[in-house]
Each structure stands twice: as C-alpha cells, then as structure tokens.
Prior knowledge:
By secondary structure, this protein is an alpha+beta fold.
Amino acid sequence: MARLSFTAILVPNLLVAPAEWAACGCLDWEWAHMGEPLEDLAWTEWMIRTYHPELVGQLSALFSGYGAKPAWKERHAAMIDKCRQGLEYARGRGDASLTALWQKRLAATMQYDECTPD
Length: 118
C-alpha cells in the first residue's frame, strides 16, 4: 500500500529531541511523494552502508523500528532504483560532476551484498 515517502532522510533534515535523542520532525519535503515504505527504509540503509559502514552491524535496530526486515533482494533493488533516480536527476541538470558522482554511487551500490558494507 502506498504511503507518504519522505525520500530525503539525511541528518540535516531531521529534528531531534535532545533529551530523548529521538527524531521528532523532518525538514525538506521537496522530494516527498506517495510510495512504498520500503523506499525510505532502503534509502536509510543505503546511507548507513555508504557513509557509515562501521554502523552496518546496527542495522537490526533500523529493521526493528520498521517492524520487519524485508528481503535483501527487495532492499537492494530499492537502493539501486534510488541511485538510478539520482543519476537521471544529475543528467537532467546537465551537471557532469554530479552525473559522475551518481554513476560511481550506482556502481558501488550494485556491488553491495547483505553481509558486507561495501
């Protein structure tokens, strides 16, 4: 069932309640759309694998909060899809350096496997 997908899960876009150290709000809704919850889950996992590989062992907490651990094949496909969207966005802007960055990200993401961070 489609639900609101935030799509921009980045630390600068989260408001955090300092006493609980818990997310209490989101900023930057320009990419939000109706989509599958798996999209945000997989993108959050991608962010961890890409920028914080030392935290991959903590992904179980992410899945626990989500309420399930979708199959790797589904999560990986969603990560690849988001990278392809980033690549298309970069190409649409005509930005060669951003296009090269998303090509690199897509290639790296395609090599991910469930057991390793990169």
